[in-house]
Design a protein that fits this description.
The complex is a heterodimer.
Chain A lengths: L6 H4 L5 E2 L2 E2 L13 H9 L3 H21 L2 E3 L7 E9 L16 H7 L4 E12 L2 E13 L14 H6 L11 E3 L2 E5 L1 E5 L4 E6 L4 E9 L5 E9 L2 E6 L6 E2 H7 L5 H8 L4 H16 L5 H9 L15 H12 L12 H19 L13 E4 L1 H29 L9 H6 L4 H12 L2 E3 L4 E3 L3 E3 L5 H8 L1 E4 L36 E2 L5 E2 L6 H9 L3 E2 L5 H4 L5 E5 L2 E6 L2 H13 L8 E5 L4 E5 L5 E9 L2 E2 L3 H9 L4 H6 L3 E5 H4 L4 E2 L11 E2 L22 H10 L33 H6 L52 E2 L4 E3 L2 E3 L16 E3 L2 E2 L6 E10 L5 E8 L9 E3 L5 E3 L21
Parallel strand pairs in A: 9-19, 23-26, 30-31
Antiparallel strand pairs in A: 1-2, 3-4, 4-5, 5-6, 7-8, 8-18, 9-15, 10-11, 11-12, 12-13, 13-14, 16-17, 19-20, 21-27, 22-24, 23-24, 25-26, 27-28, 27-29, 27-31, 32-37, 33-36, 34-35, 37-38, 39-40
Helix pairs in contact in A: 3-12, 6-9, 8-11, 9-10, 12-14
Chain B lengths: L9 E7 L3 E7 L3 H13 L3 E12 L5 H9 L8 H4 L16 E9 L6 E4 L4 E3 L38 E5 L4 E11 L10 E8 L16 H4 L26 E8 L5 H13 L12 E2 L21 H15 L1
Parallel strand pairs in B: 3-11
Antiparallel strand pairs in B: 1-2, 2-10, 3-8, 4-6, 4-8, 5-7, 9-10
Helix pairs in contact in B: 1-5, 5-6
Classes of the chains: A alpha+beta, B alpha+beta.
Bound molecules: zinc ion.
Chain lengths: 898, 324
């Protein structure tokens, strides 16, 4: 924790906060909502982006380098180069000549540069007969604002003001070539989990699983019915493989065991499955070898390396070990856990055949994962790093190939000659939004967006937005509908109207998105708590009565006979913070399974723990919170509050208010209004509105003109709006104060008089444009060729008198600079309304190109045809502007308007 | 029986303070009384800053913003009718001392504390005369001006807080020349001498010009105004007189200080009959040498001012003079 957080939260440490003194009498746990500001103090409004980026630069980038840490040479077998460490520095000015290397995001915005930090790797390599260790800069990584690598993090309001930065700006975006870019949160189906679906039209039941390993390889495996029989289907196999053959190939030879692992002791399942056993026998597959031969002849072989043709069974073995269900570990050709995984998929299909309700809902939020900036950057980095290494290897080979060299070969020099492959790769991807990573079969466009600075709220709303991978044209209502499981984690109101309705969502106020947590310690812990290893069990035990299967991140690790006790102990340890608070555990009684999840991208939220009908958080705790002697983290550590992901919520009984608590209650909501997002939270009394009004308001609140940031007058954006007299709303919500909307308001408190008037609803006609050529006028240009600050610009006025070489395409060198012909390319003012020059900026970009920015200001009054709205989705077009003497007045002579 | 027209209009002043007057107007018809209200608000000329030439503005506020705030500063406009000409009526080309006033604002902050720039910093200076330009017909205007004419209202007056224009910090400066002109509130509300004008008649609603919505009891839910004491409450069994007309009108005129309340009210009847000054569609302050607004002349469209009111106005004038 940083000492000087911004002042707003510093208020928490005062004795008097928002009119509430520490000595005020406390009725029950009345002010438990104060946990929300405490939560936001730790996490901020856009914690999901920042946490994800921090995880990437601190943890993930090191893992990627570890996995690709060696560069060798085909020419000289003695040569090797090893990456031992990688670190991302702090942003600096990437110019050789600069004295002051410190850089601020605002400088980058103004100078059209990229806010980025060097990536430094530590390498060990052979130089002659020695091994040398050095640090090398291999490129630059754009830095997310307010992340752990950003210069703004942990600064006080005054320090931020010196850096010309707004303390209310949430951060979480990048500044690339001067534009602010956001990587929107992407919604996806969860990886490495079994999803069972039915297609009633075709009568198909299928269980599918998208495997994703850290290498980034993704593939989907299906176990599906076809004409009453079950098959295994995978992209790398030409034909559907009868399930029994697949299981035999995975090492389960006996039909009895296959039956036990799939159908268990349930007669209905046995009947449904028996045909499959006959099928395999008919095809003459009885042994594992026969099964492997059967599959091997159907595997798509990737002939990359020239070599002897391998026998079919070997191809099959490799495909089954590495491509099919790649996420299930196969240690030393021990296929047991993979076989059980396939058997489980089969059993889920059998269950769905028997009972059509036993299917999964792919729209259920618990079956979703959110992909954030950190994950996307990690993929991009891995791709760029691999290319970098292969380029490096080629360059090294090239040098080593030369028979006689003048000096001893030093790979460090070759590395420095590698250019800016990584830097340009990052900048290109973020500024275009195209993530095309051939290596990972990824081809995505529109990943990044320009941060909307229409208003403070529009920028904030963009940071909480989630876009879906589903195509917009599909006319299915399922993914668009409001899911009950969205409660508390996704805003029910904030979604656009029209084609993206329900597909674009927004996070609720207290939502947290997890990052990856290492699963090995979790598995070890599960075994210590009495879970039996799965590889020691057979079908009889797995599906025996009272037995529950234990899964970690979708992979079966073992069995337990006492699921409730196991889960309770596991939770107890989590509440004691023996491992990450973001690891979730829950029991699925339908599948008789315990699921532990530690993967990233899960959506979770905090809730107060209730024990024996009493809230664990008491008034004393809240008092300590007000005094500042306790932080949100202390609440987690003491086991008063815990994070629940959407799946674990199913195991809980959450009371909305304290007086709703009964004996079976397990949790208490921190505050009901946190189920709304940051934008919907601005609506006063939303529960009195018709629900679509709240949705309309969420779309409209972002268009309100007000102040966009404290540094607004120091920004030169394409379009900037500023209201002359913005007012903070008289009717506030708690959310308004928490997001800082009262400090950067948009709109005014209006008097509304409702009366009939012979008014008319007509838009003003569009003003006619002047006809004919407007002659260029140069009278506001000063000696430097730029318009003077404060000068009025009329249509046709030249404000930058620029000249460009007329033969810019011609690169022949004439030797004489003076003889180069120039042509006039002045910038003329195009708007039909005159404006004034507000600011002129002269600077240069990273590659010493002179850059001139001219900010032109226009003053506008409300006029006929302008749109106005209340805060409840009630918009209207101004049809009449009335003189004061024509206005209604009250007994004191007061009109609307004064 | 005497009709309303036969009676002398009456004015009874109930309260007269520096910035407000409360009076009861009698024996006039509704249209006349309402037109008095409207004229008081929108047709009495005052002077206000209309053009600002900005030399230095290093404050946080943009030029237009400050110019707008300056326009809203009330300036002393006593005897505005005689003391200054409309620029459009003047023979000069670009403003002269007969039709314009010059105020300068020149403030810089050298202090570590935030400094308030207020209307007290506005200094009235003699209007610079262009020696080349001879005014062919010098008027009487200059002699008609009072000592404070054109000064910001309440400047250096104890107990009157000045109008805040802008806040500046160390190193910031504001330097500008402001030209004030005569105008009326129909063009822009900054020329209105009034801040609030209240107007009431028939406090008991005997005439049933309005319908009071109520839940249980009209009497409980619609409290009577103080003006109800002036009139006889209706008897329970009183029949509705559909021929009755309002006769007593209760006014309270509150000014912003640019004109005294009595001057505002006294000027009004004259204005009611005189052809109204032109109204323009847009107002505001023009800055940086922007051409002054050329307003199109159009005849008075004041509601309620019929020709018969001409005589009424003449009859009302002595009544007003008497009370002075
Ligand atoms: Zn003149």
């Amino acid at each position: 924790m940083v000492e000087d957080e911004d002042n707003e939260w510093g208020q928490l440490n005062l004795t008097n906060w928002k009119g509430l003194s520490a000595t005020d009498p406390i009725k029950s746990v009345e002010d438990k909502w104060l946990l929300l500001p405490a939560f936001l103090k730790v996490k901020g409004l856009v914690k999901q982006h920042i946490d994800s980026f921090n995880y990437f630069v601190d943890v993930d980038i090191k893992n990627i380098v570890k996995a690709n840490n060696k560069v060798t040479s085909d020419v000289d077998p003695r040569f090797w180069l090893k990456y031992t460490d990688i670190n991302v520095g702090f942003p600096d000015r990437n110019e050789e000549s600069s004295v002051d290397k410190k850089v601020t995001p605002n400088e980058c915005r103004l100078r059209d540069t990229t806010y980025s930090a060097p990536i430094i790797v530590t390498i060990q390599y052979t130089r002659g007969k020695n091994i040398v260790q050095r640090n090398v800069n291999i490129g630059r990584l754009p830095i997310m604002l307010r992340s752990c690598k950003c210069v703004l993090t942990g600064r006080s309001e005054e320090q931020l003001a010196r850096m010309i930065e707004c303390p209310l700006d949430p951060g979480g975006y990048f500044v690339v070539k001067g534009t602010e870019k956001v990587i929107l949160v992407q919604e996806q189906l969860s990886k490495n989990r079994i999803i069972v679906e039915t297609d009633s039209a075709k009568g198909v039941v299928q269980a599918s699983c998208t495997s994703s390993t850290h290498g980034g390889l993704k593939s989907k495996t299906y176990v599906a019915t076809k004409k009453g029989k079950i098959y295994l289907r995978h992209n790398s196999i030409h034909e559907d493989i009868p399930i029994v053959i697949a299981l035999k190939a995975l090492g389960i030879q006996s039909d009895k065991e296959i039956l036990l692992l799939t159908a268990g002791n349930t007669d209905a399942y046995k009947t449904a499955f028996s045909a499959n056993l006959e099928d395999a026998a008919k095809l003459g597959v009885f042994t594992r070898h026969q099964a492997l031969e059967y599959i091997g002849s159907r595997v798509k072989v990737n002939r990359r390396v020239m070599g002897p043709r391998r026998p079919a069974w070997e191809e099959a073995l490799e495909a089954l070990a590495t491509i099919v269900l790649a996420h299930v570990p196969v240690k030393g050709l021990d296929f047991r856990s993979k076989a059980i995984f396939v058997a489980t998929m089969t059993r889920r299909v059998l269950m769905a055949i028997d009972d059509e309700h036993m299917v999964d809902d792919r729209d259920y939020v618990g079956n979703k994962r959110l992909e954030l900036a950190g994950q996307l950057l990690a993929l991009l980095f891995e791709d760029l790093f691999k290319t970098y290494n292969s380029n490096l290897k080629n360059a090294i080979d090239k040098v080593l190939k030369k028979p006689s060299r003048t000096s001893e070969f030093d790979a460090f020099n070759t590395m420095r000659m590698q250019g800016d492959h990584l830097t340009s790769g990052f900048v290109r991807a973020i500024s275009t939004g195209n993530w095309s990573l051939k290596r990972f079969k990824m081809e995505r466009a529109g990943v990044t967006h320009v941060l909307s600075r229409l208003s403070f709220i529009s920028a904030l709303g963009m940071m909480t937005r989630i876009s879906s991978q589903f195509e917009k044209t599909r006319k299915v209502s399922g993914p668009r509908a409001l899911q009950p499981s969205q409660w508390g984690v996704l805003c029910p109101s904030d979604t656009p109207e029209g084609e993206a309705c329900g597909l674009v969502k927004n996070l609720a106020l207290m939502t947290h998105i997890t990052t990856d947590v290492e699963e090995e310690p979790i598995i070890r812990l599960a075994f210590m708590l009495g879970v039996e290893d799965i590889s020691l069990t057979t079908g009889t035990e797995i599906y025996g009565p009272h037995t529950f299967v234990v899964n970690v991140n979708g992979t079966i690790i073992g069995l337990t006979r006492y699921p409730t006790r196991f889960v309770a102990q596991f939770r107890k340890l989590r509440r004691a913070r023996r491992f990450s608070e973001f690891v979730s555990i829950y029991i699925n009684h339908h599948h008789r399974a315990v699921h532990i999840a530690s993967d990233g991208g899960r959506i979770c939220r905090p809730a107060i723990i209730v024990e024996n009908g009493r809230s664990r958080v008491t008034s004393e705790h809240i008092q300590q919170l007000k005094k500042g002697t306790m932080t949100f983290d202390d609440f987690l550590k003491k086991g008063l509050v815990e994070y629940l992901d959407v799946n674990e919520e199913n195991d809980t009984y959450i009371a909305l208010y304290e007086n709703d608590i009964v004996l079976t209650t397990t949790h208490l909501e921190i505050e009901p209004f946190t189920l709304l997002g940051a934008v919907a939270g601005l609506i006063p009394y939303p529960h009195h509105n018709q629900s679509p009004r709240n949705t309309y308001q969420c779309a409209m609140g972002k268009q309100a003109i007000g102040a966009i940031a404290y540094n607004q007058l120091n920004r030169i954006d394409t379009l900037l709006y500023l209201s002359v007299y913005p007012q903070q709303p008289m009717v506030k919500t708690k959310t308004i104060e928490l997001v800082g909307y009262d400090k950067l308001p948009a709109g005014q408190n209006a008097t509304v008089a409702v009366m009939s008037y012979s008014g008319f609803d007509r838009l003003a006609d569009a003003p006619l444009d002047e006809n004919g050529q407007i002659s260029k006028k140069y009278d506001i240009i000063q000696l430097d060729g730029l318009a003077g600050v404060g000068e009025r610009v009329d249509p046709g006025d030249v404000y930058v008198n620029k000249q460009t070489p007329s033969n810019a395409a011609d690169n022949t060198f004439t030797g004489q600079a003076a003889s180069v012909p120039y042509k006039n390319t002045p910038l003329t003012y195009k708007s039909p309304v005159s404006g004034n020059i507000d600011k002129v900026m002269i600077s240069d970009t990273e590659n010493d190109q002179t850059i001139v920015k001219v900010l032109i200001r226009q003053t506008r009054r409300p006029e006929l045809g302008d749109k106005f709205s209340s805060r409840h989705g009630q918009k209207g077009v101004c049809g009449l502007i009335v003189n004061q003497e024509d206005m209604p007045f009250n007994d004191q002579g007061i009109n609307p308007g004064n | 029986m005497q009709t309303q027209e036969d009676l002398e209009p009456t004015v009874r002043i109930r309260e007269l303070k520096k910035d407000r007057v409360n009076f009861v107007l009698g024996n006039v018809d509704l249209a006349f009384a309402n037109s008095l209200r409207r004229v008081v608000m929108a047709d009495i000329p005052t002077v206000a800053i209309d053009m600002v030439e900005i030399e230095v503005n290093t404050t946080v506020l943009p030029d237009e913003f400050i110019a707008h705030r300056l326009g809203m500063v009330p300036l002393n406009s006593s005897n505005c009718e005689e003391a200054i000409k409309y620029t459009r009526d003047c023979t000069c080309l670009a403003g002269c001392s007969y039709c314009s006033l010059m105020l300068v604002l020149n403030v810089a902050c050298h202090d570590d504390n935030t400094m308030d720039v207020t209307s007290d910093h506005l200094d009235l200076v003699p209007f610079p005369t262009d020696p080349e330009q001879q005014n062919p017909e010098p008027g009487e205007e200059l002699t008609q001006r009072g000592e404070l004419f054109g000064q910001p209202v309440g400047k250096h007056e104890p107990g009157v807080p000045p109008v805040l224009i802008c806040k500046i910090r160390k190193g910031q400066e504001l330097k500008m020349k402001c030209t004030a002109k005569k105008g009326i509130a129909k063009e822009h509300a900054k020329w209105s001498p009034c801040s609030a004008v209240s107007f009431e008649y028939d406090p008991h609603n005997k005439l049933r010009h309005t319908t009071h919505w109520y839940e249980k009891s009209i009497k409980e839910e619609w409290p009577l105004s103080d003006n109800a004491l002036e009139e006889e409450p209706p008897r329970e069994d009183e029949a509705f007189d559909f021929n009755a007309k309002p006769n007593k009108f209760y006014f309270e005129v509150e000014t912003d200080g640019s004109l005294d309340p009595q001057e505002v009210v006294m000027r009004a009847p004259v204005k009611q009959t005189a052809p109204a000054a032109p109204a323009a569609t847009s107002g505001g302050v023009s800055i940086m040498g922007a051409a002054s607004k050329t307003a199109s002349k159009r005849p008075c469209e004041e509601a309620g001012s019929t020709s018969s009111d001409d005589s009424l106005a003449k009859r009302l004038e002595p009544a007003l003079r008497r009370v002075k």
